[in-house]
Specification:
It is built from 13 helices and 17 strands. The protein is an alpha/beta fold.
Length: about 400
Amino acid sequence: MTTNLRSNLHDIVCFSHLRWHFVFQRPQHLMSRFARERRVFFIEEPVYEADIDAYMAASHCLKSGVCVGVPHLPEKLRTDAEKSNVFLSALIEEFLQRNKVHLPVYWFYSPMWIEAVPSGIETSGILYDCMDELSAFKGASERLPLNEQRLIGIADLVFTGGVSLFEAKRAGHPSIHPFPSGVDLTHFLKARSTQPDPEDQRAMARPRIGYAGVIDERIDYDLLREITALRPEWQFVMLGPVVKVDPAGLPKADNLHWLGLHAYEDLPAYFSHWNVAMMPFAMNESTRYISPTKTPEFLAAGLPVVSTPIRDVVRPYGDLGLAHIASSAEEFVIRAEEAMAYHMGMKWRERADAFLQSMSWDSIWESMNSLLTATIAAKQLTGRKAPARATVTSGAVARV
């Protein structure tokens, strides 16, 4: 990408509730791709420390080219949202001015950031990528729903992380578009070839049933206790960071293994030595609108999938026979047994591969980038938001 082309594109300032070096997921996939052609500044939530003056720590992610900004605030401000936001606004404005950011696109992942965005920076566009229903998550601020209304009211463009979220939000904005989770096919196809078995699971017997992702209030821990007891000869692998739940309260069993957070680059090696991928999500408000990124990743790795009846997994994966759906522990282990037997035929993999071809992060990014470019152009031309509206027809997403 030439310097001239980069200079002709608006910088993106991304306000996120997730940290850049956390689990590699939607924000990282998209911002890394935007950084190939324009400058991207990724602002994390503040870190609070005792006895410090407020400052912004900045670093460049060498692999992606994204500049990551982490505000550091005095510990005494942790419980004072109003003062914290004053400091945040000043830090962000100074950070953007220092980097000569002019008419950026503001890209929001959390509506809470609307309280802290600096008023002294004029934008070329405002985009809200609603990847989850954050108000349903544990510890969510009571101000979040109102802030989301405010954000949607000023946004030029809104994306959602799944069809269920789109259906819930579609009436709130004239230009809202569903973008379910994508997949890096090249990366996860590595799991289909011989990979060294990672050391921390090498000694485990088989079959191995695995989950990879954030481990929080969205996991059904009672279900895990039951399925591990029903099949003590199976090994159940839980790969990912434990957040917002007490690690001491996690189920314990000789055949249940909590391996913690591992690098995105290492996931294919783990998946290569699993027999079935599981998604033991709880059926509650926090999972009502989720569209798990892991569904297409597991399928790309060549793993059969067993999931609880999450709506955006049932439709389309369950309906197309690409995922086995289970509502109880007994049904879960039966479906896993069926998945392992079905896996021997490999016909499902051919159908999964055909389905996944349209779900690459590259194609999702290209569609988002086209919508963003068109929206900014229309706004510059008319001073109004582009009127495009997305619709869902027969289970498929159409953009008109």
